[in-house]
Amino acid sequence: MRNKQMTETSTGAEPVQTDGEQAAFLSALNEARLDERKNQAVAMSARLEAIATYLVKIKATGFGAVEVLRQEAERIQNEAWEIL
Question: Where does residue 19 fall: left (phi above 0), alpha (psi -120 to 50 degrees), or beta otherwise?
Answer without folding.
Answer: alpha
